Structures are given as structure tokens and as C-alpha cells.
User: Fold this.
Amino acid sequence: MSIKDKLAGNVLGFGTAPLGNMFRDIPEAEAQATVDAAWAQGVRYYDTAPFYGAGLAEIRLGEALSRHPRDEYVLSTKVGRLILDEVEDASARALGEKSGLFAAGRPNKLVNDYSADATLRSIEDSLKRMKADRLDIVWVHDIAQDFYGDEWLAYFETARKGAFKVLTRLREEGVIKAWGLGVNRVEPIELTLDLTEAQPDGFLLAGRYSLLDHERALQRLMPKAAERKTEIVVGGPYSSGILAGGSHFEYQKAPPEIISKVERIKAIAQRHGVSIKAAALQFVLANPAVAAVIPGASRPERIAEDTAALKAVIPADFWRELREQHLVAANAPLPGDSN
Assistant:
């Protein structure tokens, strides 16, 4: 069974990183209303992680979903970051990994741990925070962040011997339905696909397959995933918000060259009467290796925009002009292409 089947046909999911107070302190009522809006719009796949606000997103998501039957939605979270009872002081948080992203999240300290014991503990803790009795999909989180430097290969090796084996066993026992990596770099996915002993069901790739950034993924990852019949869930289709009216790219203020590229895409979109959100979502889903896309949101009205963007009719001339202007790779699958 493919990851698409395990997602029960949900091609549009909800990424909950913003619910962890990413970039801003979100009122509790607004967070709950956002999940409620997703449910009302028919969204039935929800992805979260302990890293998002040091458990805040999981707590908020669990509270909202507790009002609905568990069999009616697909739930995924991640392992690799353990939340400790220890609280970081303000100066440590300002300098740490959470600075800027989740500075307004819970103050608990996080540690990287991809071992077998940590994987089991992480799953148990996530279930408690979400008040859930089971998980459908578990992703091994951020195994190759840029700030790890060359150390990411050591983290990968720990995960190969620890998290990969534990998650494979849990899948075989029927405790979870699927597992894979949840990362924002293509290298660990390519490395995992080359392993003979690891058989993940799919991958969550954030930021590396979007309208703004997709060339590297197209070089080797997408063909290799298709060859292995392993599908990909795409996170961050709006590239940290720059494609949805925001000012961030790669979780930081967008640099001038990215802003310029977005303005060029916007100009073409305006000429053809196209929403840039619609272009971003439909571009991602045009790739046959992509099983689903999970944009994030922290305001209820954004959910309706996402569902409308998915259904919007985009003229072929729009995609043709993007390709002619070299704003998308020549080999990128586009909506309407015959594959």
C-alpha cells in the first residue's frame, strides 16, 4: 500500500508548525479556530512535531482533534527531538535552535536523539500531549539540518541503527501504519533510498520542492523515489510564506534575489488572473511522485484560501510562460503535462 493510500486520498493536509507560535504568539482561541476551520473545509490529514513550539503545536492540535472521531482523520508526528522537563532561560533560547522560529513557544529544552529508546519515548510523549491513542505515520525529523554541519551523518547513523529499526518494528506490529523521514534537505532521503535494510513508506520533504526551489529534488530524488515506488509528502509549499504574501523564505527574511523572483512570478500570475497560492499548490501536486501537500496556517481564513487554491483553474498559458521565462525547471512536471 502506497503512502497515498495510507493518507486515505487526502492530497491537501494541514501542517501545524505555525500552531507552535512560529514567528508570533498566536492566541489559543485563534489556534483552535484554525484547526476547526481546516476540519470544516474537509481537511483530514494533520501533521505535527514535538519541535513545533516544544510541544505546543501537538497540545493545540490534540485539543482540537479530540472533538472528532479518531477514525475520521490521519495523524502524523515526528521523532528525533525530545522535549525535556528542563526549562531554558531566556538567553539560552535566544541563542539556541528555536530562536526566531519558536521563540514564543513553550520554554522546555529540546535535545536531538535518534536512538531506539528516544524514539519510543518520543512517540509515547506525543500521544500524551495529543491525547491520542495511536499515530498513523511517524517521520524521523530534521536529520540533516544546515546547522548540524558535517555532524548530520553521525545523526543519520544513529537513526539508521535506532529510529529506523524501531519504526519498522512498530509498523510490522501494526502500531503505526507508515514511517519515513521528515526533512528539508534531499541528501538524507537519497541516502535512505540507497539502504537495503531500511524500507520507509514515504518521505516528508519541506521546502525543497516548491515553485521557488525544486531543481535539486528533480535531479535525482524524484526519479529515484519514482523508481522505488516511494511517494513524497511536500511541506512548505509556500516557501516559509513568501509565496503566500509573507516576507520569510527558509524561515528567515527573504533575500533580494528571492523577492525579485517572486515578483516576476506574481507579474505573470496577474496577467493570467492566477492566484500565486494556487500556482504554488498545483505545481507541487503535478509531480507524480508527490502524494500530498501540507501547507501551514495560523489563521482560520487561510484554510479556505488553500482549498480554493487547490480547485482553481489555471490556464496552460500561465505555465507555458513560467517555463519560457525559466522560472520553473525545464524538466519540472506541470499541470496539464502528459506524463
